[in-house]
Amino acid sequence: MMAITVTEAAAQRVSEFIAKRGHGVGLRLGVRTSGCSGMAYKLEFADEIEEGDLTFVDHGVTVLVDAKSLPYLDGMELDFTREGLNEGFKFNNPNVKNSCGCGESFNV
Amino acid sequence: MALLQISEPGLSTVPHQHRLAVGIDLGTTNSLVATVRNGVAVVLHDENGRALLPSVVRYQPGQPPVVGHAAQQVQASDPYNTIVSVKRFMGRALHDIADAGSFPYRFVDAPGMVQLRTADGVKSPVEVSADILRALRERAEHSLGGELMGAVITVPAYFDDAQRQATKDAARLAGLEVLRLLNEPTAAAIAYGLDNAAEGIYAVYDLGGGTFDISILRLSQGVFEVLATNGDSALGGDDFDQRLFCWMLEQARFPDLTAQDNRLLLNHARFAKEALTEHPETRITAVLSSGFTIDLTLTAAQFNEMTATLVSKTLSPVRRALRDAGLSTKDVQGVVMVGGATRMPCIQSAVATLFGQTPLNNLDPDKVVALGAAMQANVLAGNRREDDDWLLLDVTPLSLGIETMGGLVEKIIPRNTTIPVARAQEFTTYKDGQTAMSIHVLQGERELVSDCRSLARFELRGIPSMVAGAARIRVALQVDADGLLSVSAQELQTGVSAAVTVRPSFGLHDDDVSRMLQDGFNHAKEDMTARALQEARVEAERLLDATQSALDEDGERLLDMDEFSEIVASMRALAECVSGMDYALIQQMTERLNQVTQAFAARRMNMRVREALAGQSVNDLMS
After folding, report:
1. Total domains in the fold of chain A
2. Which residues of B are catalytic?
3. Considering only CB atoms, which chain A residues are within 8 Å of B43?
4. What pLDDT sits at residue B506?
């Protein structure tokens, strides 16, 4: 069974942002082949469910992932944290073997 | 790993290429920086969770400048080197700053823009503003975890070209790419999402700490147009504190107060004002340096009564702006409140009563401008799919015109005209055989040249020699979208022309604009009298000239001794009073000269007709 989870902190912020944005069915997570270490994450608002999307619901948040991306993201947890003045989402991905210094791209 | 933000569908950024863009409200008293994160506009805070950065910079020898709260705290103890309200000096020369004496700074007169002597050397307002912007940029880069791609910086709607250019220069000096300068009222309207409304007229009521601005905006087809601006550069929330402070003094009849006591009481006045926003009454207690204790109770009703004049002082500029825009309060679809002082219930209700509707006030009025700027920056940085770019139109802050005989100003483009604009008017020569004309371009609301601002002067030469009033000279004024004025003059018969290009706004500040406007209102009657006097003089001189040349040509032939001397006497009487201030006398003498020359003029006319007809048959004349 494949799964993607969302922490409570992340879920709360996602719901808040979608509410303020005024529309959207959930979040779209994915990977793309780009960046200095091969793969890069995609984190976007989703306005509709597309064909081939897999849907996960956690803490009231709907997460959409396309079938191609799923193997790279399986078992991943989406978290929201604060680091100094900065705050944002973090992907805790068990599939990652190496990532670049900044962690924005990775390979498996 | 790096922290990620949610993008709009399909707009995820490539790693290391986040399009980080911010909106900056570079204010006179406080500045803010905001951005759009996860689709929501937010103001960025400092390490202590504070949104506002006081626009205060302190310079010490050989040390980096101190910006914000730390600088504000030493403002009283180190006034020369602690610069506040630098926005007032942007793009202004020393002679432009009417109240230079009221600032503690050591001004240095420099060409173009004034400078300030500090313990760390001479600083220009651009450098001081750059230090404020740099502090905001650093805050933003720490908050967003990367380098900024660019910023939208807000400026008052009435900022002229020099002031806008100075703001851009400051940004460049601070290492910021300016995506666009945005008018403050427009930013506020954007924050309220009014740019998504269909069509409509909006008023933006901005009562800050020390200034009041009202702007009337028109939105049509996604375009915000500033229809009119008005305001009072010496009215703000601080005046309400001051009024309350005076009331406290009246109530308690204190012994002599120290400067520290004054500061303390002013702070208590501010606290009391803020408390009354939430509560119907508040208690003011303080202990003065002499040990004297103050204990007063203030109700909202009392506060409203003592500040009623201040509230109504903001309403007259609102009415003037509406009148300039040719609108009434009924035409206004929504009112946006900006500035911390608009939290006062008395302001809210006065504005609601005037416009007959509840103003938009659910966003923090201190942050609304920065939030709107951030939203615009987000669009310009390419983070939004619907690339709805806001186009902004501006207006001329003051009337533009040219000088006519007698030192009068003929207005060609009235103030608050939407730019770009082109207007033309025809003028003529004043003297027989006049072959050149001096075109003097002026800006201002007053009737006399000496009371307006001179922008440029040039000459049109090569006008064919004709009798006075026969030449037709078309003078055209054109202001382009960047506020650049070009003036051309053309003699229509020969086509000879001359032209000049100027920046009408250069070196002119909002205070000047409002002073010039105010002067225009205050001196309306005086100006009318002056204009009448000046017109009478011009007419008198024209008549004297004409009579003299008629006498030279035909005086001896057509006049007997008595008639001749009567005319000469009337001319002398008129010449004597023409430079005086007695308008009625000039008119009376002009009238008399007109009368005594009537018979002479008729005889000259008959003679010319006879001469023209001499030796010609009726047939010749008819053919």
Report:
1. 1
2. 25, 87, 184, 206
3. none
4. 43
